[in-house]
Design brief:
two-stranded antiparallel ribbon; 2 domains; alpha+beta; about 20% strand; 10 helices; Arc Repressor Mutant, subunit A; Beta-Lactamase
């Protein structure tokens, strides 16, 4: 497209965002003006518009940085890519492990919600459950998030162990030992009931975990399929 057909103000705004991003430490108004060859008034008006929409923000030293709206765009892009690829992985795993239940779980507002699911009753259908949630202390996906230091303190604060976890684990030390072992092997393995169904889960990154419920004969293959899927999804989302 010829440069004469471009919207000049929008082009300048995008260049400002790119310049701020490349700086690493933020830039002051005069530094942005000089770098892009703009007068201070023009640069200030563009920055004021970007600030109004939260695409840039100014710190106490009058340096401009990328704002939360940019991070929201990245998170939404990550979420879309994660859901898309995870959906394909859920269907693939259900074919490899007949009779299993595969679930993509999102930690959102201190709640664990199933975003995608494939179950034996509809093995070729990618379900989007609206009201399926999981316990922090009693599910493999909940324990998977507890095993991540990024989330552990927040979850322990919002769901006190003495109220929510002691019945399952007896002591905090016992649970922490389980979480440490899970961290070391890269996944959670939790036996669910007397029928020996086992729930496996691994952290995907961001606010997501992948869980698989399998029967005894499927546990070893379930672990392999879980780790293969997690590795692939992480690799494809590294750039975000």
């Amino acid at each position: 497209m010829p440069s004469s057909d471009l919207v000049q103000a929008l082009s300048r705004g995008l260049l400002l965002l790119q310049t701020i991003s490349n700086s690493g430490t933020g830039l002051r108004l005069h530094e942005l003006s000089e770098t892009l060859g703009l007068n201070n008034k023009t640069a200030f008006n563009i920055l004021r518009t970007l600030s109004h929409h939260s695409f840039v923000q100014k710190d106490a030293h009058n340096r401009y940085h990328l704002g939360p709206a940019v991070l929201d765009l990245l998170r939404n892009e990550y979420r879309g890519q994660t859901l898309s690829q995870a959906g394909m992985e859920l269907l693939r795993i259900s074919q490899q492990l007949p009779g299993c239940v595969v679930t993509l779980v999102e930690l959102s507002d201190n709640d664990l919600r199933a975003r995608l699911r494939v179950s034996p009753d509809r093995p070729e259908i990618l379900q989007r459950p609206l009201h399926l949630s999981f316990s922090i202390y009693h599910s493999s996906t909940g324990l998977c998030f507890l095993a991540q230091s990024r989330f552990q303190q927040m979850l322990l604060h919002n769901f006190p162990f003495s109220e929510h976890g002691v019945g399952q684990w007896g002591s905090l030390a016992a649970m922490q030992s389980f979480l440490q072992a899970s961290q070391e092997r890269g996944y959670v393995s939790l036996r669910l009931d007397a029928n020996a169904a086992t729930s496996l889960a691994a952290y995907l990154g961001g606010n997501y975990a992948l869980g698989i419920k399998v029967m005894p004969a499927q546990v070893e293959e379930g672990i392999r399929q879980l780790l293969t899927s997690v590795e692939g999804i992480r690799a494809n989302n590294q750039e975000l």
